[in-house]
Write a structure and sequence with these properties.
79 residues, alpha+beta, NE0471 N-terminal domain-like, three-stranded antiparallel beta sheet, 6 strands, DUF2442, NE0471-like_N
């Protein structure tokens, strides 16, 4: 699978995740914003404040942390 090299917030509550393998994946989080776990990301300032520690995508000061394998599951599930 690989580790996360970078994460870039896109319009429409999507993330572009680039892996150290050279692959990239776009994850659409808009449908997830209705869930309790992802609800805080509706705030654009929190959504835009995204970073990675190479295994996890992190928003704000740890408001929400999601491992790369879970984000890939979200992306694949929406195909």
């Amino acid at each position: 699978m690989g580790t996360i090299r970078s994460v870039i917030p896109l319009e429409g509550y999507r993330l572009l995740i680039e892996l150290n393998t050279g692959s990239s994946i776009t994850v659409d989080l808009l449908p997830k914003l209705k869930t309790a776990r992802f609800a805080e990301l509706k705030d654009q300032s929190i959504f835009q404040d995204v970073k990675t520690d190479s295994d996890t995508v992190i928003w704000g000061d740890g408001v929400l942390k999601i491992p790369v394998f879970e984000l890939i599951d979200v992306a694949v599930g929406s195909m």
